[in-house]
Amino acid sequence: MGRGGIVASPRDISNLSALLLIDEEEFTVRYTELSGGKTQIRTGDDGNCIFFVRDIGCAVHRAKPAVCRAWPFFRGNIVDPESLEQAKGFCPGISPFVSHADFAMQGRKYLSEHKLLASDPTCEANTLILS
């Protein structure tokens, strides 16, 4: 939990910089890096997102990136029953009894209602792009 690789879309950067009361350029310089052509939140030496605080959780919870708000409703878990079964093994928020069909239906609804679906693979998390 809290591992790095958190893609920060332009909207995420805007929300996070507003929360931290700094401009977007300063936020980008201080807290992000490019990886695979996308802007991602930096990680600490432990590999965790720099905003993940042990025993507390997300220090920017009110403005956390879309990819964090979407979990566990990632494309893999929605389209692949085996991926969902693996996620059930380590995510206490997923009922071990939920069927893949029900999870996928709930996930699509949640992502849509919370405006978390992504569409731009150049700057948004691929895991939030559903076809």
Order of neighbouring strands in the sheet with most strands: 1-2
In terms of structural class, how would the helical and strand content be classed?
Answer: mainly alpha
Which shape, going by the Cα principal axes? globular
Total number of helices: 6
Q: What can be said about the biggest beta sheet?
A: 2 strands, antiparallel
In whole angstroms, the N-to-C terminal distance is 27 Å
The structural domain count equals 2
The radius of gyration computed from the alpha-carbon positions, rounded to a whole number of angstroms, is 15 Å
Q: Which ranges are low-confidence, i.e. pLDDT below 50, for 5 or more consecutive residues?
A: none
Instruction: Indicate the mean pLDDT.
Output: 93
The portion of residues forming beta strands comes to 5-15%
Kindly state the number of beta strands: 4
Percentage of helical residues? Answer: 25-40%
Summarize the helix and strand pattern as letters: HHEEEEHHHH
Topology:
Layout: H1 10-20, H2 24-31, E1 32-35, E2 38-41, E3 52-53, E4 57-58, H3 66-70, H4 75-79, H5 81-88, H6 100-113
Antiparallel strand pairs: 1-2, 3-4
Helix pairs in contact: 1-2
